[in-house]
Amino acid sequence: MLEKDYNKMARTYDLSHKLPTRKYGEEFTFLKEIGELKNKTLLDLGCGSGYYSFLLQKLGAKRIVGIDISDEMIKVANEKAKLLKLENVEFLVEDLSKFKSEEKFDIVISAFVFNHMKTKEEVLKFCETIYRSLNKDGFYVGCSSNFHHQKYSEDFYKNYGIKITIPEYENGKPVFVKMFVEKEQTIEITNSFLFPKIYEEAFKKVGFSSVEWIKTKISPIGIKKYGKEFWENYQEYPYEIFIKAKK
Ligand SMILES: C[S@@+](CC[C@H](N)C(=O)[O-])C[C@H]1O[C@@H](n2cnc3c(N)ncnc32)[C@H](O)[C@@H]1O
Questions:
Q1: 175, part of any domain
Q2: Which atom of ligand 1 is nearest to the CA of 16?
Q3: Which of 43, 73, 184, 209 has a Cα at 20 to 30 A from 141?
Q4: Distance between CA 176 and CA 178 in Å, rounded?
């Protein structure tokens, strides 16, 4: 069960955000695409222990609501919010497939949530939730596994501390992810493969006026820190991709 898997890693998952690709690729691109935060309200779907919610709060967002199915992840997020005495963040235990927001937001985000969906129907439901949660001029930006390329092999991302194995490139089939976050510590997650067309069609079907795929960019700090050569494989075949959709 998904909740149980994530409950077990509620206090360690955020270590994965320290991996160079997450920090200097994913995070850099995410913030660039989210853009101006002043006076903006945000909904973080599948927020985990709130890594992006806290970052966006710190960078100036007016209000953030994070939801996740894992009660342990939300417990960790709430503990942190309390410790930091933050009043403009709220974390709730909710299943996305049933979640109906009363409130509308300027921006909806999600990081690595689409890749837990096995069917077209689940993706469509998630896109409906995103659409319904947005203000009339709002937009969604999120990242998920990059199924535009089929470069996944045990060793392709070895230098980045990540091992991704996809035994079969077929809709609904498992994707095994292992992240080597600290010397002895690993995070293992099983995702699902879906052809990108399924996501794109779902966004269009629920009514988004534009849907765009965005390739990960590397921050100048990341290039300086690790050198150009380090990023070559990843820059050509990043293992995440962004979708941006406007209402
Ligand atoms: C890979 S983690 C990413 C967490 C967070 N977005 C981050 O980047 O730090 C995926 C998260 O999505 C949540 N999730 C997956 N399916 C969900 C669902 N149906 N409803 C709510 N949360 C869900 C999981 O519990 C998990 O915390």
A1: no
A2: 9
A3: 73
A4: 7
pLDDT at 201: 97
The CATH number linked to 213 is 3.40.50.150
The encoded tokens of residue 15 equal: 């270590």
Total domain count for the chain? 1
Short-list 181, 162, 35, 39, CA closest to 109: 35
Flag whether 18 is in a domain. yes
For residue 130, give both structure tokens: 């995103």
How far apart are the CA of 116 and the centre of ligand 1, in A? 8
Q: Is residue 153 in a domain?
A: no
Which residues does residue 105 pair with via DSSP β-bridges, in sequence order?
A: 134
How remote is the CA of residue 87 from the centroid of ligand 1, in Å? 23
> What is the reported pLDDT for 187?
92
Range of the domain at 23: 2-147+194-246
Tens of pLDDT, residue by residue over 2-42, are 767 888 889 888 989 999 999 999 999 999 999 999 999 99
Predicted pLDDT at 184: 80
2 CA closest ligand 1 atom index: 25
The predicted pLDDT at position 192 comes to 95
The protein residue whose alpha carbon is closest to atom 13 in ligand 1 is 46
